[in-house]
Amino acid sequence: MMRRLTLQITLWLAFMAAVLFWPAGTFDWRGGWIYLGEITIGTVAITWWMLRHSPELLRERLGSPLQKKQVFWDKVLMAIIFVGFYGWMALMGLDAKRWGLSHVPERLSDTGAVLIAICFFIAWLTFRENSFAAPVVKIQSGQTVISTGPYRFVRHPMYASALFYFLGMPLLLGSWIGLACTPLLVVALMIRILIEERALRQGLAGYDDYAARVRYRLVPYVW
Predict the structure, then answer these.
(1) Would you list the domain boundaries of the chain?
(2) For 170-223, how does the pLDDT look when each residue is reduced to its tens digit (9 = 90+)?
(3) How far, in Å, CA of 20 to CA of 95, rounded?
(4) CA angle, corner 162, sides to 64 and 8, nearest 5?
(5) Cα 149 from chain centroid (whole Å)
(6) Do residues 69 and 143 lie in contact, with contact meaning Cβ atoms separated by under 8 Å?
(7) Are 133 and 63 in contact (CB under 8 A)?
(8) How many alpha carbons lie under 13 Å from residue 169 in its C-beta half-sphere?
(9) Fold (CATH) for 2-213
(10) CB-based burial of residue 156 (10 Å sphere; 0-12 exposed, 13-18 middle, 19+ buried)?
(11) 183 C-beta neighbours (distance < 10 Å), count
(12) Are 154 and 216 contacting, i.e. CB atoms less than 8 angstroms apart?
């Protein structure tokens, strides 16, 4: 498993680097290198933790984003999100470096790095509480409702962590155009939450009661 794990992470990071730096047309990009370093450290740290404490979850997270038991509309949405997300990354490389249209102050760029770190921390808290946190919408064998940790505050803390990522990444990379596109990603996230909640209400015992106790899906006191 370690060989597969190392290869998969290495190839993914190489792909991320290509999507960032190829459109940018330069390696002279402070924000790009900080981002790449941050996701490398965060991914390796969480993966190492899963390997030691939740190997079943790790196997699930390493699975394909399109799976047999996955809800059909989630497959459609995931394909759209995949193309949109990496297109968004490439656009920020074009904007911040090749075209030079955006000029984000360094202090705001550093704030973006902090937001991404917060995202990784909340994601780890979520994985620690929920060993059923699959990357696709499906009901797993033995799955139960989780109401501890960050699940006490919102019903989808993993998606809540993504909000920090969606705000932090364009700031760190120095792209106002990327930041302007963030609402589109948030809308896609909200649609996915509705798809997931429908599946959970239909297939997971006790979810309706949990949803009645924890009112907010994504942001406390908002939605």
Answers:
(1) 2-213
(2) 999 999 999 999 999 999 999 999 999 999 999 889 999 999 999 999 999 999
(3) 11
(4) 30
(5) 18
(6) no
(7) no
(8) 26
(9) Four Helix Bundle (Hemerythrin (Met), subunit A) (1.20.120)
(10) buried
(11) 10
(12) yes
